[in-house]
Every structure is written in C-alpha cells, then in structure tokens.
Amino acid sequence: MNLGILTGDDPERVVENRRRLAREAAIDADRARMAWQRHGREVVKAAPEGILKPGTQHSACDGFWSDEPGQGMMLVTADCLPVAIARADGRRPALAVLHVGWKGLLGGIVASGVDALGEGQLAAAIGPGIGPCCYEVGPDVAEPYEARFGREVLSDGKLDLWRATERALNEAGVGEVERTDLCSFCHPELFFSHRRDRGTTGRQGVIAAVA
C-alpha cells in the first residue's frame, strides 16, 4: 500500500491507504501528524493535524515525538530506515519516530530523537530499509561513515546503515535495540525501494502513538 502522495499515484487512493493503515493501528487519522521530510536532524513535537488531505502543509522535519496518548505520528520511507524510540521506565511514556537516511544519521537525527524524549529508560526498533547487501556508496559517504562509526559499517563499498544506526542509538543512551534486518531492495514483493526502482516507486511507512 503506497503511502506517498508525491509518487504519481492517484492521491485519493493514497489517502485511502493511509486511512486503512491508521485504522489497522487503532490511530485516529484526523489527529495524526506527517512531515515534509528533508533528510535532516530536526525532531518536533507532534500536534493534531490529520494525514488524509493531500494539500496539507506538513512540518519540514525528519522526526516527531509525543507523550500525549493517542497522538499518531507517521513518516514514509523507500530505502531509508524507519526508527521508533520509546521511553518506558515507569514515568509518563513517550515515543519518537524518525526517518533515518545516511545524511540524517551523520547529521545527528538519532541524538535529536533521544534528546526530545529526555532522560529515562529507552528502547528502540529499526524497521526495514536498504541493507548492507545492496547499499553501494561512494567515497563521499564511505569516508565520513568510517570516521564516525568505524570500518565495520563498510564492506566492499557497501554501507551497513542498520549497524551504524544501532551504534548511534547505543551511543545516545538507548539500552535495547531491536532490528528487523529486512532489506527493502531485496524484497520487491514486500517493500518499495527508491534505488531498486530508480526513483519511480511508492512509499511504505511507520505509524505509531503512545497508548
């Protein structure tokens, strides 16, 4: 189910897909929040907005956080990683969702998400995205990643964005990290992939809310 408006699909069908996803996750689509994603590090507090209107002027950011029960947050991906971080240590629960690509990860999007949640016991989940089997990168990406995360995140000219993201989460204080390790490029039957489909593709997404 394509969740991206700017993909060439009929916007009304995309809206229906978003409605179905929200309903399946028991989230009020009229209050949920989306973003104009910029591959940056900005994380903002979500507020009721609605995810169904194609012309909505969403916030320009790559992450949301909320401690308000029922406040839905949705981001879309097509090779970048959807990441959710939860604060669940007996205090008021809080949740952040992030769109993590190579630029945003180097820029500090993970630290921004953790900072937004504040102190507490944190756990995270890294969703499907392009894997180290398929993510070929040039020196402009490989060199800063090796300097920042070490040689282990690179092999034969390919980047392990999963491992780099997990390291960034651990460094930021997230004690528990769950990874799906599903490659969007390798599984056309499951996922859209911007790289595999050469830019003409849909968007999957992450949607979440504090219960």
Write the layout of secondary structure elements.
Blueprint: H1 11-24, E1 35-36, E2 43-45, E3 59-60, E4 63-66, E5 73-77, E6 81-87, E7 94-100, H2 102-107, H3 109-117, E8 122-126, H4 139-149, E9 154-155, E10 158-159, H5 161-171, E11 176-179, E12 204-208
Parallel strand pairs: 1-3, 2-4, 8-11
Antiparallel strand pairs: 4-7, 5-12, 6-7, 6-8, 9-10
What does it look like?
By secondary structure, the protein is α/β, with parallel strands linked by helices. The protein has five helices and twelve strands. It has a six-stranded mixed β-sheet with strand order 2-4-7-6-8-11. It has a two-stranded parallel ribbon with strand order 1-3. A two-stranded antiparallel ribbon has the order 5-12. A hairpin with a 6-residue loop joins strand 6 (81-87) and strand 7 (94-100).
List how many beta strands DSSP finds: 12
> Order of strands side by side in the largest beta sheet?
2-4-7-6-8-11
Multimer state: single chain
Beta fraction of the residues? 15-25%
- Unreliable runs, pLDDT <50, ≥5 residues? none
Q: Report on the biggest sheet.
A: 6 strands, mixed
* Net shape: globular
Number of helices: 5
Radius of gyration: 16 Å
Descriptive tags:
globular; six-stranded mixed sheet; alpha/beta; 211 residues; 12 strands
Quick gist of this model?
With 211 residues, this protein is an alpha/beta fold. 24% of the residues lie in helices and 23% in strands. The longest helix has 14 residues, at 11-24.
